Amino acid sequence: MPRSGRPRVTSRAQDRYILNQHLRDRFRTATATAAVTPGTHNNRISAQTVRKRLAESGLHGRRPYVGSVLLRRHRNNREWALRHINWTRQRWRTILFTDETRFVLSRADGRVRLYRRRNERYADCCVLQRDRFGGGGSVMVWGGIAYGY
């Protein structure tokens, strides 16, 4: 269909190609698509052209939803919850949920690193002072929750 104004830089086939690329990979950038898509009149198209073609097709740039990763443990917990969804209050009265955790008082559990020059191994600024036998210690806390207690 003839129209006035500047001719389109991409053909309908190229528009479909652009759309399909972004439907296959939703995180693909317009710049990356523009770099590999040749135009009809010149060798390159701009990222703005890609954005326009995607907007014409109903795809708009948005920030993604950041969801948590479900591990096998989470799926197992969900299955457990679904198995017990119809329990009555009387049955829940017999259950005690318990957990324990350890709090380290003096430092983190991980390995401590520092940056030093050669021959500074025993310099005061490079020595980690630690109480013998884990002097700072830790506290183990145990707790339980039950219905009606």
Q: Total strand count, please?
A: 2
Overall average residue pLDDT: 82
Poorly predicted parts: none
- The helical percent reads 25-40%
Provide the succession of SSEs: HHHHHEE
Based on Cα principal axes, name the global outline. flat
Number of helices: 5
What structural class do the secondary elements suggest?
alpha+beta
Query: How is the biggest beta sheet arranged?
Result: 2 strands, antiparallel
N-end to C-end Cα span:
78 Å
Side by side, the strands of the main sheet go: 1-2
The fraction of residues in strands falls at 5-15%
| Whole-number tally of structural domains | 2
Descriptive overview:
By secondary structure, this protein is α+β, with helices and mostly antiparallel strands. It folds into 2 domains: 12-56, no CATH class; 87-146, no CATH class. The chain has helices at residues 12-24, 30-36, 47-56, 72-83, 89-92, and strands at 96-104, 138-146. It has a two-stranded antiparallel sheet. Helix 2 (30-36) packs across helix 3 (47-56). The longest helix is centred in the first third of the chain and has 13 residues, at 12-24.
Keywords, separated by commas or semicolons:
single chain, 149 residues, alpha+beta, 2 domains, two-stranded antiparallel sheet, 5 helices, 2 strands, 31% helix
